[in-house]
Every structure is written in structure tokens, then in C-alpha cells.
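Why does residue order matter? Because the sequence determines the fold. Keep that principle in mind as you read this record.
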Amino acid sequence: MGVFERLQRFFGGDDVNGSAGAPVPASPAPSSEAPAEAIQVQVPGPAPRLTTSSMTQEQLKARRINIVEAAKFGRPFHEHVMLFLLRLWLLVGPVAFVALTSSEIAYILTHLVAPGDNATLIIWGGALFIDLAMMFTTFGVALKRRDLADKRDVNGSVSKREEGEVWLGTAMWLVFAVINIIGQSAFLLHIIQSGHGQDSMTLLSIFVASRVTGFILGDAVTAFFLAKVDNSALKLIARGEREKAALYRDIAQAEGERQLIEAKAEAEISLIRIRVQQEQDDARFLAELKAQVFQDILARRANAPELDGPNRSRLRRLDV
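Structure:
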């Protein structure tokens, strides 16, 4: 070890023997002569992705079940909101109908009573009685019709007595509706005549008729139609199961169509490959045949004896 090297190591904090603070020797670099397997890094490639064409029947069945069961069925959000408001209307609507129509009838009758007469309470009670009777008749007939329809769906037919009860209830509702129409018409015509006399009575009469018809139809539609819109939870479950079954069938059909299309495509590719291979074999065969013919011709020329001028036609015949 030279003098300068000893001084450098001394001032660098190492002793002469190099024991203190000696740098850790670096690991030897891999030799270029090492085998390729020792230094090659194996990077795992992506796993092959299964498709509906490569899956087994059990895998396809499990896939369809997972898709169907993971799908969301039932009513959307806006239907839930509207059905909530409908439930409120089914409760508030009939009460408002009774309050408004009974107030109209009571208004007309109280104006016919002399001032200071104590018959006002009786008039209000009678108006409420008629309209409450109509309200309960309306919903009673609606419930009867719904029960009758359910029995007809289950049993196929219903008794004549039950049919007669429904028709009797419908007739009573029609009577109450006529009474209500008369009361509303009288109220509206009284207001119109007291305020405008006989001006434009034709148009105002049409307005009265439409307004009264709207009141009656609103009550009837609420009881006979809107009450059936909100189905029970069991019916919603049954409808969801039917939708799941239809979705399962559609997915299975789509999988079958995809398998058929892919099988046809693979068959067409195989035919194209066979056709290309045949053309290549034909071209190779023609090339080899041509080369063989040329070799035979050259061999015949090489083995043919030298001929004079007049006998060169024999050489041509040998080439043929």
C-alpha cells in the first residue's frame, strides 16, 4: 500500500488496517455469464377472462342467477312519492268532498230560513248526513266490487246474491249522486243569479254542469279507481318474481344467441384457414412440379450425345 493511500485512509477515519469504518463491500453484480433463468424476472400475465361462450352450464346458470338477484325491482322513487300523496288523498279527498258539498247545501237552506230561526244546526246536520251517507256508500260499493273481482279471479265465478248486492249498492250511490248534483247546481245557480242576474246564463250553465260533474267524478274515481292503484306488498313480490323470471329467460336467450354467432364465426374462420392452406399447398405443389420438370429437362440435355447440325431436331424431340 502506497504512502499517499495510507494518508488518505487515515484522514478519512480509517486505520491503516482498514478495520474501523470500512465501507461495506457492494454485492457483486450478476455476471454476464450467469444463466438466463437466474436473472430473468417472471411477470405474471393477466388471467384469461371467461366469456359466456367459454363457461360451463353450471357457470352460466350461476351467472344468470347472480345478475337477476342483484337487479333492482319494484317501484321507482317518483312512484313511491306519488303513492304516498295518493294515500293522503284517499283520506283527505272524501272528507273535503263532504265538507264542501254539505256547506253548499247548508248555505242554500240557511238563506231560506227567516233571520233568527234556530233551524241552522238542523240544516247543517241534514246536509252532513246526506253527504256522509254518500261517502260511505261510495267506499262500501268500491270495497264490494274489489272483493267480488278477487273472488271471480280465484273461483272463476261468484254467487248471484253477491252480484245483486253490488248492483244494489251501485244504484244507491247513483241516487246519492243525483241528490248531490241537485244541491251543487242549486248553490252555484243561486250565486250566479244573485251576482250577475241573467247575463251569459248559457255559458254559466255549462260552467255549473262541468263543475258539478267534476265533483262527482272526483269522488267516484277516488273510490272506484284510485283505491286500487296501490297494490299490496304480496302482489308487488309476485310481480317482481315474474319480472325476474322474464329477465332470466332473456339472458339465457341472449347467451344462446351469442354462442351461436361465435360458433358460426369460428366455423367461417376455420373454412377460410383451410381454403388458404389448400391454395398454399397447390402453389407449393405447382412450384415443385415445375422445378422437377426443369430438372428432368436439364438432365436429359446433359445425358444426350452431341449431334451434328442436321440431327439437332432429335434434341428438340428429346426435350419435348
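Residues 233-303 form the longest helix (71 residues).
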